[in-house]
From TrEMBL:
SUPFAM superfamilies: Acyl-CoA N-acyltransferases (Nat). It comes from Guyanagaster necrorhizus. InterPro entries: Acyl_CoA_acyltransferase (IPR016181), Glycosyl_Hydrolase_84 (IPR051822), GNAT_dom (IPR000182). This is Acyl-CoA N-acyltransferase. It comes from the Eukaryota.
């Protein structure tokens, strides 16, 4: 385990990010069985963060140089959403028409590409930055999630984030994730829907 390192995420990590996203997309559990188009979760929640403006990311790399986890986000969520709406989602919506899918999860993602959710106003009032974190199950509960989060927070502290903090959304079914975030100091965001948690920087 000593050979595991954290480094900046790059576009060359796309395939790994997509794979990890799919393997954790069902409330933290593998979601391959839900999809014929297994690339869809990553195209929504991972790959844009190594391609679009205001985005940033770090990856966890094991001793064989395989990416086994990531933490990704945007420093300015509203700017990220606007750019994605103009330059990212339309091409994907054209490529993935809902009529081409038979599995409900694929249909949901394809519809989402046509009407992407945006952050609640309460989240933006809390802080402009957001993040996603995912680690393969065999590397969980070993302190790597905490190390990835610390790396991200240290980075964001130097980026003059509006609100001086960062937030995330989680599947309300993923109780293990909620407990993990609470241990790191994340709390529910006042006025936001269930599953939105934020952390103010010290």
């Amino acid at each position: 385990m000593a050979s595991i390192v954290i480094r900046r995420a790059t576009e060359a990590d796309e395939a790994a990010l997509s794979r990890i996203c799919l393997l954790t997309a069902d409330a933290g559990k593998p979601a391959e069985y839900l999809h014929d188009f297994g690339e869809l979760p990553g195209l929504v929640y991972a790959i844009p963060y190594v391609k679009l403006p205001t985005a940033w990311g770090f990856v966890l790399v094991d001793g064989t140089h395989e990416v086994v986890g990531y933490i990704l986000g945007s420093k300015d969520t509203r700017a990220y959403e606007q750019y994605a709406a103009e330059h990212w989602w339309p091409a994907l919506a054209e490529k993935y028409p809902p009529a081409s899918a038979t599995k409900p999860a694929d249909v949901r993602y394809m519809q989402l590409l046509r009407n992407m959710h945006t952050a609640p106003a309460a989240n933006i009032a809390f802080a402009s930055a957001h993040l996603h974190i995912d680690i393969l199950p065999e590397y969980q509960n070993q302190g790597w999630g905490r190390k990835l989060m610390q790396k991200a927070v240290d980075y964001l502290k130097g980026e003059n984030i509006d609100g001086g903090g960062v937030w995330l959304g989680l599947d309300p079914r993923n109780e293990d994730a909620r407990k993990f975030y609470k241990r790191l100091g994340f709390t529910a965001i006042e006025g936001a829907p269930e599953g939105n948690m934020g952390l103010k920087f010290e």
